[in-house]
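Blinded run. Sample ID left blank on purpose so nobody reads anything into the name before looking at the predicted structure. Input follows.
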Amino acid sequence: MKILIIEDESFLQELLSRKFAFEHFEPAIASNVEEARIVLQQGSMDAILLDIMLPGVDGLSFLKELRADPRWNKTPVIIISNLSQDDEIKKVREAGASDYIVKAQADPDEVVAKVRQCVATALT
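Blinded prediction complete.
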């Protein structure tokens, strides 16, 4: 299973990449939306883990872009962010996020479990 991790914090990139690889995923990493676009042009992904606060184009704008693109509109996109206010969560859900994880409260096992759940739901 392939996952694209779009995260600008290098420590979290490495932690999540290692965890997903350990769990038999094929992780790809992008530090910003431009890098993510390049990765997505190279092939399909089973899921996308997307931070909201990114340099350049923000994650919410990219989520809307993904949902408007027929190649990616069915791919589960799980938001991972420290923005935990209800209005922020509501915005990303309305934009088409499959789930929302608060970084400060999540451990890697929970992140993997949520991604697996979203992928399984998308396949049904």
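Unblinding after everyone has recorded impressions. The mean pLDDT is 93.
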